């Protein structure tokens, strides 16, 4: 990631007291990752649903699912929640497909990615159970993440992606 500007904010009042441009080098870390790339068949089915449906959005669904997986993964690979991070892309430059990357938050990786790969199906099933078990309507921090972040279609879209991925 690259930061391009800064903002000065007063404590307690959050008043904006200034801003400016900055020039910093990109932040980069070499680590290992598990990725979930949707197959072309699933991608096409989901894109068709996106065009004809008002309750599905691929980008929101991928972000919501990545948030859920970040909450589920630590329980299965026995790590701290801060040990793993996630990135979702609608069209990844590496897979050319909708992809979620869950990576070890340590330079060089420490083996969590390999465990995630071995446990990929139970992780997806646990993610589905977590979403279905939540009583909210459109998403909340307990399941897919804040609705302001994942959008109003996030929860339903994540469930659709999971149904397709698990079938």
TrEMBL record:
Q: Name one Pfam family in it.
A: MZB
User: What GO biological process terms are annotated to this protein in UniProt?
Assistant: interstrand cross-link repair; nucleotide-excision repair
Q: Start and end of every MrfA-like Zn-binding domain?
A: 65-144
List GO molecular-function terms, semicolon-separated.
3'-5' DNA helicase activity
Q: Which InterPro entries match?
A: MZB
Q: Name one GO cellular component term.
A: nucleus
Entry protein name: MrfA-like Zn-binding domain-containing protein
Q: Which organism is it from?
A: marine sediment metagenome
The beginning of the lineage is: unclassified sequences, metagenomes, ecological metagenomes
